[in-house]
Batch of 4 targets.
Target 1
Amino acid sequence: MATKNYTTEWLVLQVKDVKAYVINIWDRNDVLADVTMGAIRAAVNGLTYAELVAQPPEPQVLDAVRREVNQFGFKLHKITFSDLGRVKSLRLIQHAADKLDN
């Protein structure tokens, strides 16, 4: 059976095991987003902005995501970081969140 690469603006993937792809996951986009965001967080945690710009961690993220999504029947060929920018972080959940009135 011929396989087809699926391309989005930030990744290229290929279905390699149709049964696992159809049965083991409910929503491909959610799985990819969750796994990829976790890998990005692990790769960038503790790095400075200058370090990220000088050497974006795309290869490390790609390796981590490949290992994780293999069980779901697809293979990643490429991940691209669309941009790196300084942004303000708004944290809605704090350490004292359990003390808030609902």
Target 2
Amino acid sequence: MSTTPNQPEKVQSDAKPAYPSPDQPNKEEEEEGECGLCLYMKAGGCKDAFIDWDNCAKEAEDKNEDFVEKCSQVTARLMQCMNAHSNYYYPILMSEKHAEEQAVIELEKEKQDSSANASPYESNQK
């Protein structure tokens, strides 16, 4: 009688992977034409906050409303959530931080340029 070495049983799991696999799109999340960023955002812990933000952005665009005014609260909630899940959203947060830093640099440059180009009359009127 021959015996085979004990091999661990393969256990099937219903658990979803932590990150979406690029070669196996998640059918539940996938919508025709949905952007990669949207899929990424929905795969993390801020899915609901992102969906709320996305819906607000679409509504503002459809109704020709001011996005910043209309969606400031949902944007703040999304950012809070992303910060709370920064281990997953780190690349997006760093990109946002870099863009913000660049905007500040550009504003300072414009401010310096406008000060240098101001006429003596304008500078005395301030």
Target 3
Amino acid sequence: MGAIEKEQFQAIVQFIEEIDFGSLHITIHNGQITQIERTEKKRFENVKKQKVK
């Protein structure tokens, strides 16, 4: 198992701090982090639907 680089650790922490709703996907190849992907979701408050004329 490889050691995590400081830059990688900082990127992971930053992504976690910035996401309100979503996921963080970390890809590891041969024991090393090769890619970090984040998916964010935008949630809206329940708003009554209004008909558009």
Target 4
Amino acid sequence: MMEGRSCCWGEVPVLIDGGAWRRTDVFEALALGAQAVLVGRPVLYGLAAMGENGVTSVIEMLKNELELTMALLAVLILKTSRGVMG
């Protein structure tokens, strides 16, 4: 990611897609400069298992785990496209 980011820093938003299964995957991508992390497969598994409630559960679980990771690493605020989280 670092090589791709250096050529277009600030010009093109960096989105990470694929491989984000755990809170640490999401945190690492954001810490390296990604503006967003796409988590399609876990959400689809939640949809297949429990429908809309499964999707909500997966998203809530990832959010809670990301907040835990931030707390463990003493990151107080994470700026997001929707505002500030944390």
